[in-house]
């Protein structure tokens, strides 16, 4: 997974820019520029700070839309079984 791409996806969902995240998190903007040169990979320390700033658990950063779809389908199936 390209962590910078994932970050941009999360920011798009929130209508937030990378610059705004940089200011809010205290992560220097050059950190993100460096990640672009490293095949889009952020360090785990940076990802943890991003998650704190966005107020999301760390696991959510690594979950794709397909992962969420699978969880929702599983939860729906379980609730139907419990209702029966």
Molecular structure report:
With 84 residues, this protein is an all-alpha fold. The chain has one domain (3-83): lambda repressor-like DNA-binding domains (434 Repressor (Amino-terminal Domain)), CATH 1.10.260. It contains six helices and no strands. It has helices at 3-14, 18-25, 29-37, 44-54, 58-61, 65-83. The radius of gyration is 16 Å and the shape is elongated. The termini are far apart.
Distance between the termini: 39 Å
* CATH-derived architecture: Orthogonal Bundle
Structure summary, number of beta strands:
0
- Integer average pLDDT: 90
Helix content: over 70%
Oligomer: single chain
Classified in CATH, the superfamily is lambda repressor-like DNA-binding domains
The arrangement of helices and strands along the chain is: HHHHHH
Strand content: under 5%
What is the global morphology? elongated
Task: Tell me the count of domains.
Answer: 1
């Amino acid at each position: 997974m390209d962590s910078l791409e994932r970050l941009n996806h999360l920011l798009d969902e929130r209508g937030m820019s990378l610059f705004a995240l940089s200011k809010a998190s205290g992560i220097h903007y050059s950190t993100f520029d460096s990640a672009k040169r490293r095949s889009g990979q952020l360090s785990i320390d940076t990802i943890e700070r991003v998650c704190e700033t966005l107020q999301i658990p760390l696991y959510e950063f690594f979950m794709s839309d397909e992962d969420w779809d699978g969880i929702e389908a599983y939860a729906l199936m379980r609730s139907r079984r419990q209702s029966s």
